[in-house]
Amino acid sequence: MNKHYSISQLLTYMKCPLHYYFRYIKGVKIPPTSAMTLGISVHSALEVNFRQKIQSKKDLPIEAVLEAYSDSFESAKQETAWEKDENPAEVKDEGMNLICAYHTGKDRNEEPMMYRELNSETKKYEKKLVQPLSPQIMPLFVETPFEIQFNNDVGYTFIGRMDLVDDQHRIHDIKTSAKTPTKDQVDADLQMTAYALGFRVKTGATEKGLVMDYIIKNKSPKIMSVETYRTREDIDRLLQILGSIANAVEKGIFYCSCNSIFCGPQNCQYWDMGNGKGCKFGVTG
Questions:
Q1: H helices of 16-103, where?
Q2: For residue range 251-275, what is the model confidence (pLDDT) as tens digits?
Q3: Of 135, 177, 188, 211, which is the most buried if we count CB atoms within 10 A?
């Protein structure tokens, strides 16, 4: 049976090969952080809305979407690695505000939501109305899986799942983020490249666009969409990365990336797994 690789596996190896070893070779799962639980729960609730919208052609009432979010959050809450100063109820409430912003642009009291944005010319902050994205999207496919097989006998396939494809054949990815992304970051995002590849192989056509829908976790949530595209060269680069990582995994090449951003007891949950096998030891034995 062929081995499967996903974009999550590739990104993990690129971040730290030793992380890949612990997660995908040894099967050591780490509990999600509060940010991960919030993001997954928001994503799950929006998925519930978009799935039914394929047939109904209209959004669910906000109460139904919030209920789906609450169910998902409560299910994941017990397994979340909460920090000492974190309050699960406050994090849950923050997620509800994010959903309200994305779904209706109004808070739970039905008041229009506002956010502050810096005017690049005046260098002053201005208040702007939140523009909800749910009403603007008519889904065609939601959470659509794909599997790419290769003609040459490489011994693996590439699998993935597209978040959402709208009726204009644009692929959407919904993200919650603490920071406003740059256009360069979206243009270089390998996950979007993987979606483009999956769409082209699955449908035999080229997508009409790629859209990263961001829910920014400011004090007042901000909703924004960043459009991008992918060329054949972008696809080829992804396939080259896939081949290189698959080759390294087959050869058992796993090492600590020693990245100052990720390494350390505060940022790496594999840092000290005991018995001298954690990332701080830089070994896999």
A1: 17-20, 34-56, 62-77, 88-103
A2: 999 988 877 777 777 778 787 776 6
A3: 211
